[in-house]
Each structure stands twice: as C-alpha cells, then as structure tokens.
C-alpha cells in the first residue's frame, strides 16, 4: 500500500507588497495552522517516508512544520524548484520517482496545481484545497502508486477551518 499526502502551504503574509512571491513568509495564522495540521496527522499515526516541498519560503516552512510534527528529519526534506510553478505532469513524474523508494509521501506545494493534482489522482471534485489543507490518497495492490487519473482512493480531505477535524483512535 502507498499513501500520498498532498499539502497546500499554510497561509502566507501579504504584509510587504513589494516582496517577491517566492519570498513571502507565513502569516500569524499560517504559523498556527502548520503545527496544528501536523499534529492532526500525527494523531492519526501518519509518518512520512519522504517529504517533497517547493522551496518557496511559505511552502518550505510548512514542510518543516509537517516534518517536526510527524517525526520526520527536517534535514531530509527534499526541495524541488518545479513544485513552485510546475505542472501536474512535473508533480506526477516526481511522485513516480518518490514512490519507488517510499510508501508514504508528503508533497507540499501551491494552488492551483495541488488541487488539480488531487482531483486528477482521485477523480473527486475538490474545487479548492484551502491553505494548509491536506488531501490523503491511498493506492493498494501490486502496482502501488499510479499516475493514471482516478486510480487513487481519497482517504480524507482536512483543513484548519474544517468544522469536524480528523482525530486519531485515542
């Protein structure tokens, strides 16, 4: 079984309008939501084997929160420029490589590509993954991960403002 967790970066700050988009940091809300969502995943006993992230400042910090909250070594996060403005095809190719060596992969990136990717892989209409939202997808069987449309099973879709957040079996 292979599991994919698509994570949209946490809420970013627009406090400095002259700042390049790539350099935008997290807002106060983003700094709260990142650790909160990582705790929710940890409460479900989710531990990644691999974390891929966009190197944009807001995505990078979100990936660090995910790593710290789930027990993944921060120094092992793999940053890829193509996750910043790359296409769904770029993301799929990276995931194909990742799933050759890992069973549980986190991919931290940006909208609209993250939402398009979730919809493509699950065949489920999501419309929009909010900031710091997480879409969990499962692949079972011999083949494991498949980049074919609709082959992934949507396990859950969670986000900070969800009325009933996911809880572990505690």
In words, what does this structure look like?
By secondary structure, this protein is of the alpha/beta class. The protein has a domain at 2-11 and 21-105 and 123-142: Rossmann fold. It contains 5 helices and 6 strands; from the N terminus they run βαβαβααβαββ. It has helices at residues 28-43, 57-70, 82-85, 88-98, 113-122, and strands at 2-8, 50-53, 78-79, 104-109, 134-139, 153-158. A 6-stranded mixed sheet has the order 3-2-4-1-5-6, with helices on both faces. Helix 2 links the parallel strand 2 and strand 3. Helix 1 (28-43) runs parallel beside helix 2 (57-70). The radius of gyration is 15 Å and the shape is globular. The two termini are 24 Å apart.
Strand content: 15-25%
Helix content: 25-40%
Q: Could you give a short account of the major beta sheet?
A: 6 strands, mixed
Distance between the termini: 24 Å
Order of helices and strands: EHEHEHHEHEE
CATH topology title of the domain at 2-11 and 21-105 and 123-142: Rossmann fold
Rg on CA atoms, Å: 15 Å
Pick out the low-confidence regions: none
Number of strands: 6
CATH C-level label of the domain at 2-11 and 21-105 and 123-142: Alpha Beta
């Amino acid at each position: 079984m292979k599991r994919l967790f698509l994570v949209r970066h946490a809420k970013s700050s627009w406090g400095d309008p002259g700042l390049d988009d790539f350099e935008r940091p997290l807002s106060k809300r983003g700094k709260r939501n990142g650790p909160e969502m990582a705790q929710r995943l940890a409460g479900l006993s989710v531990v990644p084997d691999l974390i891929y992230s966009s190197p944009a400042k807001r995505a990078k910090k979100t990936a660090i929160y995910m790593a710290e909250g789930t027990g993944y070594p921060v120094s092992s996060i793999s940053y890829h420029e193509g996750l910043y403005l790359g296409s769904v095809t770029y993301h799929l190719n990276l995931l194909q490589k990742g799933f050759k060596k890992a069973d549980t992969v986190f991919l931290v990136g940006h909208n609209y590509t993250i939402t398009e990717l979730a919809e493509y892989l699950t065949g489920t209409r999501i419309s929009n993954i909010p900031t710091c939202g997480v879409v969990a997808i499962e692949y079972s069987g011999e083949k494991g991960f498949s980049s074919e449309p609709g082959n992934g099973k949507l396990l859950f879709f969670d986000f900070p403002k969800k009325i009933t957040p996911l809880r572990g079996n505690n």
